Amino acid sequence: MAIASIAIVPPTKEERREALKAVYHQARSCTNCPQLAATRTTVVFGNGNADADLMFVGEAPGANEDRQGIPFVGQAGKLLDTLLGEIGLVRGDVFVANVLKCRPPGNRDPHPAEIEACQSYLLRQVELIEPRVVCTLGNFATKLLRGEPTGITRLHGRDEVRTIGPRAVRLYPLFHPAAALYTPANVEVLRADFARIPELLAMDPPPQPEPVEEAVAPIDDPPRALPEPEPASEPEPEREPEPEREPVAVGPPPDAQLGLF
Q: Which residues of 156-173 are buried (b: 16+ CB within 10 A; e: fewer)?
């Protein structure tokens, strides 16, 4: 007998925004990485246009970002803003996030277990924002979203279509602005790679994977009889709920971190 199926209806713009807010509030109280949760000032979820065609993914928050709750607000952020301006864009046109949402102590490199624990937030951001182009800034973002270890030196400036979670995007690896500041020659390389971004945005969006349909019971099957209720038993005691972590009042109001809501 044939099994009926229900096609998945894409969420509306408003539904995607509300879902993104929900993921943000979930991330604010995340304790998946005990050390990061204990040492952070605030969670740096991301900032910008929730419907952006262009998304940037960096490595992790630094000290300034940890204080203000917004990514790329230091010298690397100033360079990012300058390069955006040179191609006719401003920060409000794009969405900016990081692989990690919490600052590693002493700005050390992210640990593999931390990347694994945090990647679901990034994948949901890509899914809900629906960017056409995702620029990975540096090695950590590039290796994570490409799923293989080739470094940024070999890959920068070369776009390719990749499926990230349920969504296909045009992935475009770039040098991290902070790394470029340490090597002045790389600023010009980064500027040249940035100059191609308008061309990538003008391309047709990548075809999306077929959505998975939800299988349901055959519509012509007779309804099944419900089982007889079991005798009532003594209710199990409820566990005492764990206290919620109070967010630190640093930087802008919580939803302001998400930019153009």
A: bbebeebebbebbbbbbb
Nearest Cα residue to 258 out of 51, 31, 37, 6: 51
Report all structural domains of the chain as residue ranges with CATH numbers, in order of start. 13-202 (3.40.470.10)
d(CA 130, CA 125): 8
Strands (E), 64-131: 95-98
**Residue 191, exposed/middle/buried by CB under 10 A (0-12, 13-18, 19+)?**
middle
Is 170:206 a contact under the CB 8 Å cutoff? yes
Q: Helix, strand, coil shares of the chain as percentages rounded to 5?
A: 40, 15, 50
Q: What is the pLDDT of residues 217-233, one digit of tens each?
A: 444 444 444 444 444 43
User: What is the pTM assigned to this prediction?
Assistant: 0.81
Structure tokens at 75: 């010298």
Q: Name residue, tokens 């952020």.
A: 77
Question: For the purposes of burial, counting CB atoms within 10 Å of the CB of 21, is it exposed (0-12), middle (13-18) or buried (19 or more)?
Answer: middle
Q: Per residue in 54-76, pLDDT tens?
A: 999 999 999 999 999 999 999 99
Q: Which long-range contacts (CB under 8 A, 24 or more apart) does 114-120 make?
A: 114/33, 114/36, 115/140, 115/144, 117/32, 117/33, 118/30, 118/32, 118/33, 119/144
Q: Which of 156, 173, 187 is nearest to 56 (CA)?
A: 173
Measured distance CA(101)–CA(115) in Å, rounded:
10
Q: Is 172 helix (H, G, I), strand (E, B) or coil?
A: strand
